[in-house]
């Protein structure tokens, strides 16, 4: 019996990096998906080859941790560039964990979110469950927003994250991909070191948490100009934390005259930026002129789904 699943990529609207330290953050699933087909087989294979742990660390981890059955033939296919800050590894974890659960009894979303997070954490060394939760739940999610009904709660050591669904108003977001591949783990580690060694870094992380709470209110009120201002302010704080780069700053600067706000999204160091805009074509053109790859995203996308069983 073969199972096919898919899960969406995501963008972080506000709060990346600070969320690793338990601060609030907001993420939206986007219309780029990761697909996974799993079928019992006579040998363990990924896309027709033996699993190479260097090439497929998440797959290796998930099979080792979550699968007790016989060999599997796994095929994977992604519309989300890896290292783009758009949650490709989280979508992989959600779709593969989801497929294994569907093969052995049934897909439970809260459990899939926990398993997907364990895999990201296991491979990256440190992470928050924001990306994997967005890939599992779809739509819009807020992490550690007081007063909301949680979809699920996840904790590790001294940190805990409560994940809830949020309403997302009609708005247009343009993503600009720098083309620079930036793995998340080293950037998260860099912020952790900075937080330990610089007395202002903790304040900056707190400020990101505060502006994310403001952003959640702006989203709820449908106040897009305010949301845009907060996104731009968030970019400045992320730059102070040292996770922006020349390419990202260039795309943010280019998009701003045509946008309500713009910021890097995801881990930074390359990857992508996002602009909230009422002039998407002009924002796309400005991003393209600076060497970025722009696309208008659709939000409100479904989370992990079993597409064929
Ligand atoms: O760049 P991405 O898609 O891996 O996003 C990472 C978001 C961080 O806050 C930087 C890390 C995390 O796990 O929360």
Strand and helix map with partners:
Elements: E1 3-14, E2 25-40, E3 45-46, H1 57-66, E4 72-78, H2 88-103, H3 109-124, H4 130-137, E5 140-143, E6 152-156, E7 159-166, E8 173-177, H5 184-197, H6 201-221, H7 224-240, H8 246-255, E9 261-265, E10 272-276, H9 280-289, E11 293-297, E12 305-308
Parallel strand pairs: 3-4
Antiparallel strand pairs: 1-2, 1-12, 2-4, 2-5, 5-7, 6-7, 8-10, 8-11, 9-10
Helix pairs in contact: 1-2, 1-3, 2-3, 2-4, 3-4, 6-7, 8-9
Q: How would you portray this structure in words?
A:
The protein is an alpha+beta fold and 309 residues long. It folds into 2 domains: 3-167 and 300-308, Ribosomal Protein S5, domain 2 (2-Layer Sandwich), CATH 3.30.230.10; 173-297, 2-Layer Sandwich (Alpha-Beta Plaits), CATH 3.30.70. Helix content is 39%, strand content 25%. The protein has 9 helices and 12 strands. It has helices spanning 57-66, 88-103, 109-124, 130-137, 184-197, 201-221, 224-240, 246-255, 280-289; strands at 3-14, 25-40, 45-46, 72-78, 140-143, 152-156, 159-166, 173-177, 261-265, 272-276, 293-297, 305-308. The strands form 2 sheets. Strands 1, 2, 3, 4, 5, 6, 7 and 12 form an 8-stranded mixed β-sheet that branches. A 4-stranded antiparallel β-sheet has the order 9-10-8-11. Strand 9 and strand 10 form a beta hairpin. It is globular, with a radius of gyration of 19 Å. It starts with a strand and ends with a strand. The mean pLDDT is 96. The structure holds (3R)-3-hydroxy-3-methyl-5-(phosphonooxy)pentanoic acid. (3R)-3-hydroxy-3-methyl-5-(phosphonooxy)pentanoic acid is lined by residues 12, 16-17, 19-20, 85, 87, 127-128, 130-131, 184, 188, 266-267, 271.
């Amino acid at each position: 019996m073969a199972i096919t699943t898919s899960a969406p990529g995501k963008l972080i609207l506000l709060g990346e990096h600070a969320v690793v330290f338990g601060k609030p953050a907001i993420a939206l699933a986007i219309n780029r998906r990761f697909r996974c087909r799993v079928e019992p087989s006579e040998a363990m294979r990924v896309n027709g080859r033996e699993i190479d742990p260097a090439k497929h660390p998440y797959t290796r981890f998930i099979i080792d941790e979550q699968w007790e059955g016989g060999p599997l033939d796994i095929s994977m296919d992604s519309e989300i560039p890896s290292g783009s800050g758009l949650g490709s590894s989280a979508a992989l974890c959600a779709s593969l964990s989801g497929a294994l659960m569907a093969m052995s009894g049934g897909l439970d979303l809260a459990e899939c979110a926990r398993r997907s997070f364990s895999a990201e954490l296991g491979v990256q060394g440190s992470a928050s469950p924001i990306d994997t939760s967005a890939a599992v739940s779809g739509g819009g999610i807020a992490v550690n927003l007081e007063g909301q009904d949680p979809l699920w709660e996840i904790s590790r050591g001294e940190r805990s994250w409560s994940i809830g669904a949020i309403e997302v108003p009609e708005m247009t977001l343009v993503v600009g991909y720098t083309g620079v591949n930036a793995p998340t783990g080293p950037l998260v580690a860099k912020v952790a070191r900075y937080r330990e060694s610089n007395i202002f870094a903790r304040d900056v992380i707190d400020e990101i948490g505060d502006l994310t709470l403001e952003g959640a209110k702006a989203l709820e009120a449908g106040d897009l100009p305010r949301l845009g201002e907060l996104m731009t302010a968030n970019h400045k704080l992320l730059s102070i934390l040292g996770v922006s780069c020349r390419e990202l700053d260039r795309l943010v600067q280019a998009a701003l005259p045509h946008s309500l706000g713009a910021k890097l999204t995801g881990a930074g160091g390359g990857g992508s930026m996002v602009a909230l805009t009422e002039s998407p074509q002009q924002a796309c053109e400005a991003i393209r002129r600076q060497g970025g790859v722009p696309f208008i995203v659709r939000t409100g996308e479904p989370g992990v789904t079993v597409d064929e069983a």
